[in-house]
Design goal:
- By secondary structure, this protein is of the alpha/beta class.
- It has a single domain, classed as TIM Barrel.
- 44% of the residues lie in helices and 17% in strands.
- The chain has an 8-stranded parallel beta barrel, surrounded by 5 helices.
């Protein structure tokens, strides 16, 4: 089975959602991720139900399967913000259902959020927050894909696997975003091997850690061996999952950012790596 590649409207905040989907299709991608973060034009807080249904029609016309959803949920929101977080999350779940039209899992990816506590003192609190979210997701037949993130206290494959083992919930899986592990110094193949049994989706970007600062870059513009990454995925029988190129806001907020050119650059980097596998 040949790898398929995907791209997210997370990289296209400045573009109308309908045009964003067309850009992703034209660039050659097979799979689609729709960002529903509050600041994005496709957030359910202002992207109406009618617009969501029209977007589904376009997605189908372009030949995509059901998109996955970039949720950006503040999972560990403090008590006084938790009701608002749950209300917003419910809207995201409902939008994910509207965007879904086949028999694949309804997938929403998120980090623990900006309210996540320090790992050593708060990992059990984080575990319980994810369990509560997973129970909520189960009601709507949604699977949460947890993403570890460089520059936070939840940044290693070992911590990600601990979370999966401690929660052991059918509606809680991992988003295997290799960039966050590699940037923080974890070995790439080791990270894939550890996380593969729990993975429900795959992301890649690139970057490096300079001092305490994380500097992301595009896949293909850094040091990650993309062909080696794909090979590790194949070894772990994850070749059936699309590999989603991700663009950090560090790039997309730059004044000279060209969204169409970046989408094409990322696709070409992935495609060249796929070609090396044979």
């Amino acid at each position: 089975m040949a790898f398929k590649f995907g791209y997210s409207t997370y990289a296209l905040k400045m573009v109308d959602p309908f045009e964003a989907v067309k850009i992703i299709s034209t660039a050659g991608y097979d799979a689609l991720e729709v960002c529903v973060s509050e600041e994005w034009p496709s957030s359910p807080t202002h992207f109406s139900r009618t617009q969501q249904e029209d977007l589904v029609s376009l997605i189908k016309d372009l030949g995509f399967e059901s998109p996955i959803v970039f949720g950006n949920i503040d999972v560990c929101a403090p008590y006084y913000d938790r009701v608002a977080m749950y209300d917003l999350t419910k809207k995201k779940f409902e939008m994910a259902q509207r965007l879904h039209f086949d028999d694949s899992p309804i997938l929403i990816t998120t980090t623990p959020g900006h309210s996540a506590p320090p790992w050593e003192s708060g990992k059990n609190q984080m575990r319980d927050a994810f369990l509560n979210l997973a129970d909520m997701a189960a009601v709507d037949d949604v699977v949460i894909a947890v993403e570890a993130h460089a520059g936070t206290d939840f940044e290693t494959p070992e911590k990600a696997v601990w979370m999966m083992e401690q929660t052991n919930h059918p509606n809680l899986k991992l988003d295997l975003d290799i960039s966050h592990f590699v940037v923080e110094g974890s070995d790439m193949v080791h990270s894939v091997d550890l996380c593969a049994p729990y993975a429900s989706m795959v992301h890649i970007k690139d970057g490096e850690k300079i001092g305490d600062q994380i500097e992301f870059c595009l896949p293909g513009a850094g040091s990650i061996d993309i062909a080696g990454f794909l090979s590790a995925l194949r070894t772990n029988r994850l070749e059936n999952m699309p590999v989603f190129a991700e663009v950090s806001v560090q790039q997309s907020q730059e004044p000279n950012y060209k969204p169409r050119d970046v989408a094409e650059f990322c696709f070409n980097a992935l495609d060249q790596a796929r070609g090396k596998l044979g």
